[in-house]
Amino acid sequence: MRKMTKIAIVLVAFALLTQVVYADEGENTQNAYVDIETQEEVEIIKDHIGASVRLLQLEKSILRNIIKGEEAVSFLKESGYNTTELEAILAELELLKEEVLSADPNSTDAVQIFIDLKSDAIELTKEFRESVNELLDEATAEQLRLRIREMVSEQVQNLTKRIQNQIRSFNRNQLHRIYGVIGEFDKSTINEYQNGNITKEQVKNQISKMVNNFTKAKKYKIFSELKEEKIRLRVQAKAYVENVTANFQERKEMRLRDRIQNAQKIVDSPVRAEMQNRITVRMNNLSAGSNKLSDNASSVSGNSGADNKNAGGS
Q: Which of 167, 212, 276, 298 is the most exposed, having the fewest neighbouring CB atoms within 10 Å of its CB?
């Protein structure tokens, strides 16, 4: 039992530290707009460092997809395909990347900004992939995958280093909180981790050794406090997501309108026209969806009134 308590403390403590892993796309949706992975990712957006980590990861994901997309377009052009549609999607991804770069991690709306922009990135990446798949047979698609797999981007590598540094800064602050709960402070371990001299796994082993000498009662108290903190962050993230989804479609329509205006700087006229047309179609679909929801709500409201009247009469 004592060993299990020690293990539980270490596991909960390290659940409070962020991971380098970032989900580009989520398949399991929690609601209409935010997938489960995204809800978990917003747990760390409680300060500007956590927000910076997620925005940098989003920037890296978009940049990587643009680079791969450009290689795919080059490959398809060599094979004589019309790539205007694909280039239009990449052009919008470029505008989206600029929006991510201009996002303020100190903003009180950082969660909303991250969720909105990640949602757009997933949508555009999916559209690009599906458009490519429609053009190619399996053999040609495999040739393209091999060509993309061999690519190395210095820009992506630089972003990876920046992300790792920010994650270490975030985890340093989390370690301060964890050691505060434990009641013993190990400044040298925190500094060694912050400077990249030891790994998170090594920090985990140090905490495990420290906790091993505690009484059962103290171990349980630490476990309870750390678990409570993790639950609080999860509940807070869920509340953030619920608030963000309230006017999700309206915000998306505003972003799309801005992109139509920003598309004016795209030099290639056919690509610019294709992108503006695609955005206009998505905006029309949003409006149609909003009207349908409004009609359904009115219908439900009307039926509810009739039901209430009948209930009152009985």
A: 298
CA-angle at 143, arms to 139 and 146, nearest 5°: 135
Residue 175 to residue 172: CA distance in whole angstroms: 5
Q: Alpha-carbon distance 228 to 230, whole Å? A: 5
β-bridge partners, 35 = 29
Nearest CA to 278 among 87, 32, 70?
87
Each residue of 228-262: pLDDT tens digit? Answer: 888 888 898 888 888 888 889 999 999 999 999 99
Pairwise CA distance, residues 284 & 55, whole Å: 29
Name the DSSP class of 17: S
What values do phi and psi take at 106, rounded to 5?
A: -85, -5
- Domain coordinates in residue numbering, the chain: 2-247, 250-313
Q: Say how far apart CA 11 and CA 61 lie, in whole Å.
A: 28
- Its pTM stands at 0.83
Task: Tokens 């219908």: give the residue.
Answer: 299
Contact status, residue 157 vs residue 47, Cβ threshold 8 Å: no
